[in-house]
Amino acid sequence: MIAKSMESYVKGSSAIRAMFEEGAKLAKIYGRENVYDFSLGNPNVAPPEEIKQSIIDILEAEEPTFVHGYMNNAGYEDVRNTIAQHLNKLHGTQFTEKNILMTVGAAGGLNVTFKTLIDPEDEVIAFAPYFGEYRSYAANYGANLVVIPPNLPTFQPDLNKLAQSITAKTKAIIINSPNNPTGIVYSEETIKQMAQILTDKEKEFGTDIYLIADEPYRELAYDGVSVPYVTKYYKNTIVGYSYSKSLSLPGERIGYLVMPDELSDFENIISAATTANRILGFVNAPSIMQRVVARCINSAVDVNIYNKNRETLYNGLIEMGYECIKPEGAFYLFVKSPIEDEAEFCNMAKEHRVLIVPGSSFACPGYIRMAYCVSYDTIIGALPQMKKVMDEVKNGATKK
Ligand code: PLP
Asked: Which of 75, 80, 84, 363 has a CA 20 to 30 Å removed from the CA of 256?
């Protein structure tokens, strides 16, 4: 028998994966090219060519026992130093390798952060809609996830509600910009106001409140929009970064945490996080991938490919009468369901071989998410299908 504590995770985490598996089934029946699968944030843009070359170079040129061996649980020092210098160049920060901990993707980094900070009954605040795994991660360490309801129609964080939600038990706030599932980016003004609220509340309660910035989509921003670097605005910030999307390497499980010197209890946090990396079973981030990302520090995927998808899908859906905020980053559209029950709408779309995910997976019912990290052909093929679904809605042809 499985542990009772696992039962709710298993039930709760299956909606997106279930849709993905549904896609595989439909593909067998109708052919892969006739199924329009927008269910999963799995990048369709190939990693930059230099990734492959650097793997080859590392295997040929570097000492095998070094490349395949254990290292400091925080990661190779030279890799962490390269990342720190890169961040300093981009953001005018002053990090050293001491501030960087290599992780098993963003998910590994978030788990390390929670393990480091959270005692049972601590509160972690998240803004809906949010990446559904936050709930499981928080629960895994006994935290209560306090959810601030969606701020419609902009989906910008509701800062008044944030101020009202912070208590003496608040240990952390988690933010994600560019955002999954809405694609919105938090402006500098928003980050500044948020920082002021947290500073005031730390004083009021005499506590440390950590701001966790989950940033796997940092590089995926459009129309020249800038994504503020949060450590510059609030001293108790921990940044979680990942190469899953920025270099299209989600299966390789590589990312890092940034823990600035200014953090309250800095030395203890660093050693606790390094220990957490080990005792959660990661031990260290994958060794070859650490060396790859350092060699490819200036590489990036071609964001223009996602941008073209974004423009075509967004404009196409708006023309049909769908309502949606135009995303400024990441690769998701968060569309208002034209009928109240968005799960039913997802079923209607599935009947037309379009796979999308209900907003309730992100604590935001009434909306659906489309991950547009798909081929352009998929976008073009899906649009007429989405039109048919809208026509059915207009004709009152829901199954209710
Ligand atoms: N955080 C957010 C907001 C995500 O969307 C994802 C993945 O989709 C993750 C974290 C996990 O990323 P990784 O694959 O790097 O663990």
From this structure: 363
